[in-house]
Amino acid sequence: MDPILSSGDTAWMLISTALVILMTIPGVALFYGGLIRRENVLNTLFLSFITFSIVSILWFIYGYDMVFSTDIWGVIGALSNPFFNGILESGALSSYAPTIPQGLYAVFQMTFAAITVALISGAIVERMKFSAWLAFVPLWLTLVYMPIAHWVWGGGWLFQMGVLDFAGGIVVHLSSGVAALAMVLLVGIRKNAKLLPHHLGYSVIGTGLLWFGWFGFNAGSALGASNLAVSAMIVTNTSAATGMLAWILMDKINTGKPTLLGALSGAIAGLATITPAAGYVNITAALIIGFVSSIICYYAVSHLKPLIGYDDALDVFGIHGMSGIIGTLAVGIFATPLINSAIKGGVIAGNPAQLGIQLLAIVVVGLYSFGVTYLIGMVIDRTIGLRVEEEHEVQGLDINLHEESGYRLS
């Protein structure tokens, strides 16, 4: 029987796509923007907006093909329809989601690419040249994101091995988190490396938009208005809520006081960690995933970062990178065919081999993202230069790089 377009699935995926756009602009932008010094708020917001614009264009020129077109040796897709040539005119349904138009699937996937690159910006805020970021975005999108997305989602070699990543634990969070670590090692420590949130209210709004949009991210990855989407939505919310409460608990135990910033961080950790597992696990697993991930991310931020001494300004590696690792391993343990009949499940379902596949993906993608990102950063540093002038960093990037100020100058 030939595939038939479903108006219900199409409507849900249109909404999901809009929700994921909301996650980047203004979700990530506001979350990050509230956490830095007031002198850098506009520059920080600008990084997310400019990233979304660049990715939106490049994705339809060649990006979608390189990820989802005909597989070449398990490594990359063939460039068969540059500029999305003829696809919108044909009205063809997607081979990956046969009840929705191919164009809709493509723009949905574009939003994932955009937020992945935007996440990295949180690590290097307050000290990286805007021009260097403009060069970084297309290079990283092309050389890191596109190959990894093809390997995992587009029919590449990890896909063929049976790796499971429902909505981006490997493709989004692990790849961006490890890339963030590579970039901060290159760009160096800020003159003032303390986290000085100038307006937590912005971050509260950003977190709320992220939490709201994450339902499009995870439930949308069911690719239709189905029971699987409902299940993904419920476990996503459960993990986020558990992650928030767990981080508050850790704050109370370690400092004696709960903090709003900790609550926001815990929610993001819970959301990020459930992402690769959202379409494969039940509520019990979501509770465990959210709780454990929040505790591990807490210690990554509070202990591992000071121990190693890297300046990941907004803890992209400590939260997103670690969440990608934990969530991807959790799939290998908790995934069950009772939730998703298309899979064999993980260790608890009697398929321990899945955990090995998940671990292999973590190691390979982590090493690839770190290595290629480091090379990209070195090339930019030796040409454009990564770091702003010391005077500009001290005074703030808004006025020096953009001749603007987020607040009235006193």
Task: Report what the structure shows.
- By secondary structure, the protein is mainly α.
- Helices cover 69% and strands 1% of the residues.
- The chain has helices at 7-33, 41-68, 87-90, 102-124, 130-153, 157-161, 169-187, 200-218, 227-255, 260-274, 283-308, 316-334, 353-383, 390-395, 397-402; strands at residues 71-72, 76-77.
- It has a two-stranded antiparallel ribbon.
- Helix 4 (102-124) runs parallel beside helix 7 (169-187).
- The chain is globular and about 65 Å long.
- The mean pLDDT is 96.
Oligomer status: single chain
Provide the spatial order of strands within the biggest beta sheet.
1-2
Which residues sit in consecutive blocks of at least 5 with pLDDT less than 50? Answer: none
What is the CA-based Rg, rounded? 20 Å
Helix amount: 55-70%
Global geometry: globular
Mean pLDDT: 96
First-to-last CA distance:
69 Å
**Secondary-structure content class:** mainly alpha
- The total of beta strands comes to 2
Summarize the topology.
Layout: H1 7-33, H2 41-68, E1 71-72, E2 76-77, H3 87-90, H4 102-124, H5 130-153, H6 157-161, H7 169-187, H8 200-218, H9 227-255, H10 260-274, H11 283-308, H12 316-334, H13 353-383, H14 390-395, H15 397-402
Antiparallel strand pairs: 1-2
Helix pairs in contact: 1-2, 1-4, 1-8, 2-4, 2-5, 4-5, 4-7, 5-7, 5-13, 7-12, 7-13, 8-9, 8-10, 9-10, 9-11, 10-11, 10-12, 11-12, 12-13
